[in-house]
TrEMBL record:
Subunit (UniProt): Homotetramer.
Biological role stated in the UniProt entry: Involved in the oxidation of myo-inositol (MI) to 2-keto-myo-inositol (2KMI or 2-inosose).
Catalysed transformations (reactions): myo-inositol + NAD(+) = scyllo-inosose + NADH + H(+)
E.C. no: 1.1.1.18
Keyword NAD annotated: yes
Record keywords, A-Z: NAD, Oxidoreductase
Span of domain Gfo/Idh/MocA-like oxidoreductase N-terminal: 8-128
EC primary class: oxidoreductase
Pfam families: GFO_IDH_MocA, GFO_IDH_MocA_C
Gfo/Idh/MocA-like oxidoreductase C-terminal domain span: 140-329
Protein name per its UniProtKB record: Inositol 2-dehydrogenase
Length: 339
């Protein structure tokens, strides 16, 4: 509910990302407050809610829906837990910002799409935050302007210092490469039609059996090709970069993120340690825009269909990485709500 125009948000999942969003909503967002935090690990919920005024704490995620102070939900639990919360929010007509992935597989994503389509109005935004990053937004404007002609190739680098404990091969695609899948669709306005995954010798810095790094090749519906270096245990910093090669020029973002540091005999550029630093401004803008739209009774940004389409590419990507074959992406036709 909105109290005196202030949106009461429940944050479900208070781990790394959820706790960061609680802080953001509490201190860096206007027009919203954190009304509740829920986590199956109650201590985490309590830690995240510590110092937030009038904030309820729950260890049962669906309890937030019984709280009249809650007018919107931010979902930051692990991907497999998203569907249950999304379904409950849709049943109650509450706006949702759901961290990526919408759900980890296309079948469950399609159930969410159909539930929202049956309502006939959008309630869900997916947290593909690169769409709110200043550098990526400039690339998008340039591509849309057409001044460099048609985009032909995209080169991506996606490096993390280390993968989280328990990360599996399929998660490298569903939790990490899913960002590139959305970025390609958004930047080009084209669907990804096929995925190939090439795996060099695994780095000794990666957990045994993870098969990190990987090189992904994505083909699109109007003939563009994207390559993605996905290296989740590079050991030295967080790097997300993208170069668009078009008919009459190129454009690149992501190389120059940290400040230039000068000292005795050296001039260098700091590399951010993780996504919370690299994309801080993008998360801030994403959440502020979501709150502003929810208070107006609307939803903007990446929608359930984008979440489903990315999940379908993930499915092909997981099979491509397991088989070494080129795998075609299979999708249903979008309901009218998303056309
Ligand atoms: N946009 C981004 O750049 C970005 C970055 C990191 C994570 N994420 C996404 O955010 C989500 C959370 O990731 P994280 O890195 O914070 O994970 P995390 O493991 O740090 O935190 C997840 C939290 O959810 C809790 N949890 C588990 N099952 C739950 C359930 N059913 N209901 C409520 N809480 C539950 C866990 O106890 C934990 O505290 C994932 O969807 C992840 O893909 C997005
Ligand atoms: O969940 C995180 C997050 O989505 C990051 O943006 C990405 O760089 C990581 O690879 C992934 O594990």
């Amino acid at each position: 509910m909105t109290l005196r125009g202030i949106l009461g948000v429940a944050v479900v999942g208070a781990g790394r990302m959820g706790a960061d969003h609680v802080r953001r909503l509490d201190r860096a967002t206007s027009g919203a407050r954190v009304a509740a935090v829920a986590d199956v690990d109650r201590e985490r919920a309590e830690r995240a809610a510590d110092g937030v005024e009038d904030c309820a704490v729950h260890s049962e995620p669906l309890a937030v829906f019984d709280d009249p102070a809650v007018g919107a939900v931010l979902v930051a639990s692990p991907g497999p837990a998203h569907e249950e919360v999304l379904t409950a929010a849709l049943e109650r007509g509450l706006p949702v910002l759901c961290e990526k992935p919408l759900t980890p597989d296309p079948e469950s994503a399609l159930r969410v799409v159909r539930a929202e389509a049956a309502l006939g109005r959008r309630l869900v935004q997916v947290g593909f935050m690169r769409r709110y990053d200043a550098g990526f937004r400039k690339l998008k404007s340039l591509v849309d302007s057409g001044v460099q002609g048609r985009p032909l190739m995209l080169h991506f680098r996606h490096r993390n210092v280390s993968s989280p404990p328990g990360f599996t091969g399929p998660m490298t695609i569903r939790d990490s490469a899913v960002h590139e899948f959305d970025t390609v669709r958004w930047l080009l306005g084209q669907e990804i039609t096929a995925v190939t995954v090439v795996r060099p010798a695994a780095s000794s810095g990666a957990p045994e059996g993870l098969g990190d790094p990987q090189l992904l090749l994505l083909e699109t519906s109007r003939g563009a090709v994207a390559d993605v270096e996905l290296f989740l245990n590079c050991g030295f910093g967080y790097q997300v970069a993208c170069e668009v090669v078009s008919e009459r020029g190129t454009a690149r973002t992501g190389d120059e993120t940290g400040p230039v540091v000068e000292g005795p005999g050296a001039r260098c550029r700091e590399i951010p340690p993780d996504y919370l630093v690299r994309f801080a401004d993008a998360y801030d803008l994403q959440v502020q825009r979501w709150v502003d739209a929810a208070r107006r009774g609307t939803v903007e940004g990446p929608d359930c269909w984008d979440g489903y389409a990315a999940a379908a590419v993930c499915e092909a990507g997981v099979r491509a990485r397991e088989t070494g074959a080129r795998v075609a992406v299979e999708t249903e036709a979008p309901p009218d709500l998303y056309r």
